[in-house]
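Give me the fold.
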Amino acid sequence: MHVLRQARGPGAGMNQAARPPVCPDPAPARSCVPAIPAGIEAMVFDFDGTLADTTPSHEQALRAALQPHGLDLDHDWYRQHLGLSIDDLLATLPGGRQLPHDEIIRQSRTYLLATVHSITPIACVVSLLRAARRAGLPCAVASGASRLLVHPGIDALGLRHAFAAVVAREDVTHGKPAPDLYLAAAQRLDVPPDRCLAVDDARDGVTSARAAGMHVITMAGGRLVSADEGPEGTARFASPAGAPMPRQTPPGGEAGPSAARETTAAPHDASPDTTPPRSEDSAR
């Protein structure tokens, strides 16, 4: 499979596909907020692709950073590798190990920081965050992205006040799908992991949170659903106040620790499946 193509000039190969919706209907966002399970004492949120709809901008930033080196990022390949950090994406690309990684990462981050003011929140997730805050639950961010991008992104969404802790890739040894990020967030909140509810759109993020021993909510078909019960078993939605409801025992228990790899964010136009859903956004 051809992953990279020769760039055809400035802007060549830029994907012009329409941006996927960040919530089925942002106006009644509360209607897509799932119940907070009984017994939950804290919530931990992924950032890219979960709190913020950053997938298109991260793809564009990486493509723009590669083009000066005569390479064009293939859209389909990129979407198949959501869940990898920019470092891991470059290492995975055929011939990518020979590229000047530091330069490409710097150019990509420069682009993302210049456009951070334009990122949009994912309404369902922000509504869930607000419900957790109303319920008095401490909240944290656990992101596989660099703190150089995560902190400005949180500020751009006006959510700095909402989080008692922010854990980024530099804060742990291993990124997602290893459990380090979620374990560090639970430690900073001083709440046992099995009393935390994680929210992550990414397959690797879901794996990471499960490996940490947390309950998990993910994105499927543009809605928040329980990753523990599977898409078919999550038609229950909370009241506007996000009142807790009893949770079912997850089938098969929690997954064990996985090999370390930092992750990226998935678009929200995919259909639900029964595997742990997809991934967080790249160019981190």
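The chain has one domain: 28-245+261-284.
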